[in-house]
Amino acid sequence: MKTYIGIDPGGSGGIATINSDGKLIQVVKMPDTPLDILNYIRGYDPDNIICCIERVHGMPGMGGASMFKFGKNFGYLTMALLANNIQ
Question: What is the pTM for the complete model shown?
């Protein structure tokens, strides 16, 4: 059975996991550190996962620090998924 992960990489974002029947498995807030992100992603079997990361962009009025946080989290998530052979 496939598991689907949806990720909002913002600083106040999170990760939701559902099974192939659409049943909610887990919702967690975005892990705080790159190591926390990597360890969270390591908990999944790469052969049974489909993952989507929200395509984020800066919003009018959003400060530079917030935009930078988005970019860092997106990079951390991308590398954690690559490191665990999840596409």
Answer: 0.84
Nearest CA among 1, 9, 10, 2 for reference residue 81: 9
Give residues with Cβ within 8 angstroms of 18, minimum separation 6.
3, 4, 6, 24, 25
pLDDT digits (tens, 9 = 90+) for 27-44: 999 999 999 999 999 999
Res 58: pLDDT: 66
Residue-wise DSSP of 46-86 = GGGEEEEE------TT--HHHHHHHHHHHHHHHHHHHHTT-
- Environment class of 9 (CB within 10 Å of its CB; exposed 0-12, middle 13-18, buried 19+): buried
